[in-house]
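Limitations
The structure tokens in this dataset are predictions for the assembled complex, not deposited experimental models. Users should treat interface geometry with appropriate caution, especially where small molecules or nucleic acid strands are included. An illustrative entry is reproduced here so readers can see what is and is not provided.
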Amino acid sequence: MNKTLLTSAVAVAMTLLSGQALAARDTINIVGSSTVFPFSTAVAETFGRTGKFNTPKVESTGTGGGMKLFCGGVGVDHPDITNASRRMKASEFESCQKAGVKEITEVKIGFDGIAIANAKSAKQLDLSLQDIFLALAKDVPDSSGKFVPNPNKTWKDVNPALPDTKIEVLGPPPTSGTRDAFVELAMEGGCNSIPVIKALKKSDEKLHKAVCGGIREDGAYVEAGENDNLIVQKLTSNKKALGIFGYSFLDQNTDKVQGSKIAGVAPSYDAISDGSYPVSRSIYFYVKNAHVGTIPGIKEFVTEFTNDKAWGPEGYLADKGLISLPDDERASVAKSARALTPMSKPE
Amino acid sequence: MNNINNIPSTSPAASDVPRRTIDIVNASLKRRYARERRFRRLGAFAVALGLSFVVLLFSDIVSKGYTAFAQTYIQLPLNLSAEVIDPSGSREPATLAAANYTKLIRDALRQQFPDLTERQALRRLYALVSVGAGDLVREQVVAEPALIGTTTELWVLADDDIDMLVKGNIDRTAAPEDRRVSDETIGWVTQLEQQGRVAKRFNTIFLTHGTSREPELAGIAGALMGSFYTLLLTLLLSFPIGVGAALYLEEFAPKNRWTDLIEVNINNLAAVPSIVFGLLGLAVFIGFFGIPRSTPLVAALVMTIMTLPTIIIASRVALKSVPPSIREAALGVGASALQTQFHHVLPLALPGMLTGAIIGMARALGESAPLLMIGMIAFIVDIPSGFTDSATVLPVQIFLWADSPERAFVERTSAAIIVLLAFLFLMNLAAVLLRRKFERRW
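Predicted assembly:
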């Protein structure tokens, strides 16, 4: 009995395998950033609903993982599109070239803001980037310019204008793209506003990077996991805490939490779109031109994504929390995206 | 006798009275009983603590999730005019499917609120119903062409924000800028409610549809089928291999250093973190053999490797529990070694092996970590219909929904957990029942 089962199972597996290897793929494969995932999937679903093409498969692999898969080569085994919450790096572009992925179309789709929020019932804070850095950095310079472990216990220690409450910030762990962006946009911006650290950039770049990117581990910053919904929940039960998460979660929970002003600007759709809210980043997707024509529907997918019905300020992606590009930029990106203009090597 | 019963004592008072064992026992009896009672209480407390956590977990999940099994619908009189749906009168399914049902719904909505004319306001009004509502009406009409030409009151799927509003998850009394639904929309919904046109109905979409970015259209059928194909293939592969390996190791293999080494390795593998199997699957099955990512096939291969140690260990224990007299009797009447095993030992050991297999399968059903590496964390709308279709599985679907910003996904996440727990419960129950029914004790 065992033998028959075993052989039949192996036979089934083999037939299935060989069948798959021969068949060409008729579904677009998308990989990449978990930040872009909610938008990419919304477009994929709408695209599939039109009925002409299969619904693309969207994998959430993270920006770096997506780039690795995307630059793996040309052919049905490799993805057609990768999403990214930052620009493609020069090194990634090179590895793409080496693997034969020569022509890549870069499509900037909009902005993603990072909110620093607290419970609605608490007082809205107005933080500067420097306040954020001084509250959350692992090491800060003391009055003589020497680096000491962060002594600040309350927000008042950081800036006398802020309330006398304990520093308690719930945020994503180091594996998260949101954390990378937060460090890059908020922490580095804040630390460069301190002259001692700014001078360090010229003399000791490595130390500069460590100082700006180091987040304290003494309990003031709580790694609350990758799940932004959980952070929102915790904020409602803990009025003293602040939380760091993506703008789309703030947009969905405006009755529970409020975004702190950063440098006097509250995180709102308009403020992120025109660039006045400092903690925001651009998000992209990249198309493998060599697959256009081989895998059906790629061109149409790009057209669907760059349609104002989707990514415009009134489009369905705005409803999902995407912040659109300004009108003129949107038009020019759409034009070059639909023409599949290959990008040049990023700096 | 006295000497034996006497306990040497340093205290002068005790030395006068001879002490016997029974006295010592009696003296310590109370303490020993107390100690036993304490231990029992501690044990009961530990069980109660464990149970209370389980109850807490279950009640939290159920209280959050049960609302997802109902879904808000809006009843609208749809004018399913033949000119719009089927101008040629052929009633062909292709023609019926191509008609613009979204427009019919919008017309019906406008009829309910005739004073609205401004384009922006109408847009907001149309947002009361789900973007997928038209497709659902189409399904209804295609299934029941007799509706064409009539004006029928149909239940139209509401948008997720409206669903949350009706379920009370959005506070109507909050300040307007604090909620996602405007006063205007609440006014419309209230008016529809007063007319009895808003109702919560059983959410069949949740059980019959694949996933979606719109919470009201999202279902677990895709993930369930993905889990089904993965588990089926895992069972087909791992059970025969596991039982075969156990049979050989237990009954046929010589006991030497090699088999010892293999045994140590199998026990080790059972404790390896599951993510390691995912990395292995990525390198071997996808990288070397070129099996397509995100398919039940590659997931099943990874799960097979993961569950094999569990099945082998359980099978060996089951084989060990078959008394040697069975083997000796079979051999004694002239059965060959193979016949002894397959005709006599294996049938008796099978219930234990099945229990092991089911427990292994239950673990595979709840596993998500190794699937991270092989591309199962994916958005797949279509319900898979084979081992090589792209698919996702239940735990991964839960993970993806838990990470979605839309508030309506919170209850759907919990509902999906309820479904997963129900399946796990059923599988473990099956394991217990099988053992009860077929297990023989000697």
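Some entries come with short summary sentences. For this one: Residues 21-65 of chain B form the longest helix (45 residues).
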